[in-house]
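Researcher: Let's continue the batch. This sequence belongs to DUF58 domain-containing protein, and it's 321 residues. Same format as the previous ones, please.
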Amino acid sequence: MAEHDPDPRLVPSLGSLIRAQFQAQGFSFLHRQPVSSLLAGRRASRIRGRGLAFEELRGYRPGDDVRQIDWRASARTGRTQTRVFTEERDRPILLVVDLTAATYFGSRHATKASVIAETAALASWLGLKFGDRVGAIVFDDHGLEEHRPQRSRGAVMRVLGAIASRAAALPGARPRPSDPGPLNAALRQAEIIVGHDWLVLIIADFQAWTQPAAQAVGRLARHNDIIAVPVSDPLDRALPPAPWRGLATADGTRVAVLDPARSGLGAHVEAEHQRRSTAFRLGGIQLETPVLSIGTEEDAAPQLRRMLGGAAAPKLSGGRR
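Model: Same format as before. Here are the structure tokens for DUF58 domain-containing protein:
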């Protein structure tokens, strides 16, 4: 890492997102999964993968390719039967990437913004590897930018560049609470551009998750595969035991001791996290939308490998990570 680059655990740089391609191994967002994967058993899409997919058997017609005649079926039915194949198309992938000010927070290994960006990079490189078109809606508190899916390394680099650019502004952004507006706007834009049989990955803080967001995801899920990737920090899930000690004034002349149990704040934080988790889980069951909850305790790649039933972390040459 160059001296002028930020620590990628705090602010993801374009270089760190490019290097993520070497970690994009051992798991997949495709519907064919190991039985231990959280995506196992998902409904099959008619356009997944690429190549030729068997469609049906039907009676032979003049002009049909004689190489596709099914002689066993012909003998069984007494009529010449031919196999019909359809060409499978590539699958467009749309990443909805949250880089609002609320994501610039982390109490353990990394910030939520870093884990979100890494997850988006991994999904981009995997999509390119499997020959799919990759696009993104990258948003922050000030707006969004749209990148229509394309099948090229240049398209992936543009998506990663947009993510790195928005992430670079986070350290100087004014802290603000989670606002449902940016996520809702990004999902509305996704509804405009997404057709049928797309894969939409929503990688976000999700503390701004509201009923309008759930309704938008429901509409998208009618004709597409949706995967929600909520990224949280341990302090989002539960507050540490009391007491807390901290400076009550900027000059450090007074020390405050806070008791979350006495104020009810600790119980409220934990209850809110459980409420959101339940909403994701139940919504996922109803809409066939898998929820891959990951945290800031470690990098995104090993967490995704564990959930998606992949292999252990790949061994890289030269002993480097």
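Researcher: Any comment?
Model: Residues 66 and 82 are 8 Å apart (CA to CA).
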